[in-house]
Amino acid sequence: MAKRGMGLRPGDFLHLFQEIDLKEGRNTQFTNGRPSYDWYRHFMSRHKDILGLRHEVLLESSRAKLTKTKLDDWYSS
Predict the structure, then answer these.
(1) CB–CB of 41/48 below 8 Å?
(2) By the 8 A CB rule, do 39 and 30 touch?
(3) Which of 43, 34, 30, 37 lies closest to 16 in space, CA to CA?
(4) Are the C-beta atoms of residues 37 and 14 closer than 8 Å to each other?
(5) Least confident of 16-25, 39-48, 65-74
(6) Where are the beta strands (DSSP E) in the chain?
(7) Which of 34, 47, 55, 59 has its CA 20 to 30 A from that of 66?
(8) Quick one: pLDDT at residue 37?
(9) pLDDT greater than 60 at residue 33
(10) By CB neighbour count within 10 A (0-12 exposed, 13-18 middle, 19+ buried), where does 75 fall?
(11) What pLDDT, on a 0 to 100 scale, did the predictor assign at position 42?
(12) 44: how many CB neighbours lie within 10 A of its CB?
């Protein structure tokens, strides 16, 4: 998702990790079966060579309003 410009937020990442644990039936020691934000922070620091935070960048209104049809019309002219 990050390659598409849609990286996961910390809460989304923790939810994904919780879903994987439940699906695989792992016996984790997390409170309520979900890792904490401290765990997330430590996980990111352990894997900083391959993972990183991406900050959201707001699109200009003209780019946000761009549609496939408008883009196709622009390229055909």
Answers:
(1) no
(2) yes
(3) 34
(4) yes
(5) 65-74
(6) none
(7) 55
(8) 92
(9) yes
(10) exposed
(11) 93
(12) 14
Both structure tokens of 23: 């699906």
Q: Mean pLDDT over residues 63-77, rounded?
A: 76
Q: How far apart are CA 34 and CA 46, in angstroms?
A: 19
Of 42, 47, 20, 46, give the one whose Cα is nearest residue 33. 20
Percent of the chain with pLDDT over 90: 9
Q: Which tokens hold the place of 33?
A: 């079966």
Residue 54 has pLDDT above 60, yes or no: yes
- Six token digits for residue 10: 């910390």
Q: Which residues, in sequence order, are CB contacts of 30 under 8 Å at separation 6+?
A: 18, 21, 36, 39
Q: Name the pTM for this structure.
A: 0.55
- Tokens (6 digits) for 1: 């998702």
